[in-house]
Amino acid sequence: MNYRHSFHAGNFADLHKHAVLLALLEALRPHRQALTVIDTHAGAGIYNLVSEDQARSQEAERGIKALMAGDLPGVFEPLIEAVRGLNGGAETVELYPGSPWLIVTAMDDDDVYIGCEIQPQVREQLAQAMAMTPTPTDVRDTDGYRVVGEESADLILIDPPYERRDDYERAAQAAAAAQSLSPEGVVAIWTPLKDLETLDGFLRDLRKRTGAEVLVSEARMRPLTDPMKMNGSAMVIVRPPPGLDGAVAAVAEALVEVLGEAGAQARTWRM
User: Given Cys at both, which of 4, 153, 180, 270 links 36, Cβ 3.0 to 4.6 Å?
Assistant: First the structure.
């Protein structure tokens, strides 16, 4: 699977991932004096929704723009506020915030953000986006999978493009390495949802390697009948903080209700 984010920015998977991410940051805040966040595959930070890529894919039209054109479920309000803020309060959405922007703009002064990005052009865009925020950030030209085994963090976001066959395995390995280094840390992993066999295999491997409790949120936007399509999105959270389950379930349910096709389904469960 080749997941070029400039084509897909603002699609249903981003809405799922980012709304859950903001709920996770809010749930973590009462339990941490200061947060250190490592973003293993940070991306560009900000995405242009009027670009040639978006004109071809139309994914934001069926994602963030469709969501904002209807009756907005309250669970998406933090994300919508961030989107409007990035667009100067305008209802017309031309820019979409990636995970780095959402994380950093939700941070306090004592928090630390480490964004890892190995693609030079994308990393330059990330550095430019982070320079626009008031919070100091650490943008690195490094393999994020390795960083999580070397530096402790309160929250680690693992969001690879799944271009490599071993991305699922490396994500599970990184979660285990992070847990060994920071036993109280939380790891959030986004995965595409194409078929249940792939997700179930990843979850078994993750549980075997970490032995930790895992919260899984699935937004199945259509029935999982064609494994060649991205039929949905999953957020997998290792060592979820208290009070997160309801917010995560509400995100998946609202997303499926507002943007899902016939036969769409939301599932949130622990293993």
Answer: 153
